[in-house]
Design brief:
Blueprint (H helix, E strand, L loop, with lengths): L7 E7 L2 E7 L9 H8 L8 E6 L9 E6 L4 E2 L3 H12 L6 E6 L2 E9 L2 E5 L22 E2 L9 E6 L3 E6 L8 H9 L9 E9 L2 E8 L3 E3 L3 H13 L6 E6 L2 E7 L6 E6 L1 E7 L6
Parallel strand pairs: 2-3, 11-12, 13-15
Antiparallel strand pairs: 1-2, 1-18, 3-4, 4-5, 6-7, 7-8, 8-17, 9-10, 10-11, 12-13, 13-14, 15-16, 16-17
Length: 282
């Protein structure tokens, strides 16, 4: 029997980005890729990311958070999931700010209200080898891509804990992201695959976004994609450094600060229910 049987968890979402938060601190339990896939396939438990809390590694942090996609692969960052983690950790904590750690580094989480949080997502990585891309690029703001859809042959690349490719288009519904997303995710330009975003500039502080997430598929929202898109739009001169990002699930707010080059992500979370994993899942 899986050691996860009977473990309590929180089913949450961040503007529709489906999240499970599982606290395994003070245990030696982990979650295998097979277990992650089994949980996703269970009725009512389908998720985009599972945020698995382990004992802190770095002093001053509350947890080391391992982020699993629903296909069992691992992610470096999840802005919506991190806000859910902040809600879980800060329920009975009067402090306005806590820190958690992921593979991408330390993340500051600030409570804005009972159900809204701001996460400092850190600095964007902009060099081709940092993202990473297959080919050396002099300018990752506008990268040419061999692809059979004319509107999807140039993209802007950013790593915000995950590799992101952002295509600026006139209509985010117009280019078959439901079918082209997986093809682009696995394009050999992206040696670690990539999150694929279609972005439409409405004004200099408002962007409409649709995202195909690496290891997940189409999603209602993706926080790291919102950050990557805001950075890309600012680098291209299409937007300022603060933006409202409208995704299918709702709005997120980004601020690419000049003082430290960090990207802040603000948005709400929602608790759907709490439960325990049934042994039958595994």
């Amino acid at each position: 029997m899986s050691a996860l049987a009977g473990r309590p968890f929180f089913k949450m979402n961040g503007i529709g980005n489906e999240i499970i938060v599982l606290d395994l601190r003070a245990t030696s339990i982990g979650v295998s890729p097979d277990e992650a896939r089994a949980i996703h396939q269970s009725p009512r438990l389908a998720y985009d990311q599972m945020m698995v809390l382990h004992d802190p590694v770095t002093a001053g942090t509350e947890a080391f958070v391992r982020i699993l996609n629903n296909d069992g692969s691992e992610s470096g960052a999840c802005g919506n999931g991190t806000r859910c983690v902040a809600w879980v950790l800060m329920q009975d904590d009067p402090r306005p700010v806590i820190f958690v750690e992921t593979m991408a580094g330390l993340l500051e989480c600030r409570r804005e209200s009972e159900w809204a949080f701001t996460v400092d997502m850190g600095e964007p990585r902009l060099l081709a080898e940092e993202i990473p891309l297959r080919d050396t690029q002099a300018d990752t703001r506008n990268v040419a891509l061999d692809f059979d859809v004319p509107a999807l042959t140039h993209f802007s690349a950013v790593n915000m804990g995950n590799p992101h490719a952002i295509f600026f288009v006139d209509n985010v519904e117009g280019y078959g992201l439901d079918t082209n997303g997986v093809r682009l995710e696995h394009h050999d330009m992206f040696p670690e695959r990539a999150n694929i975003s279609l972005a439409h500039i409405v004004t200099r502080d408002h962007i409409i976004l649709k995202v195909w997430e690496r290891g997940v598929g189409l999603t209602q929202a993706c926080g790291s994609a919102a950050c990557a898109t805001a950075v890309s739009a600012a680098r291209l001169g299409l937007a300022g450094r603060k933006a409202r990002i409208t995704l299918p699930g709702g709005d997120l707010f980004t601020d690419w600060r000049t003082v430290d080059n960090h990207v802040l992500l603000r948005g709400p979370v929602e608790l759907e229910f709490q439960a325990q994993f049934s042994p039958e899942i595994f």
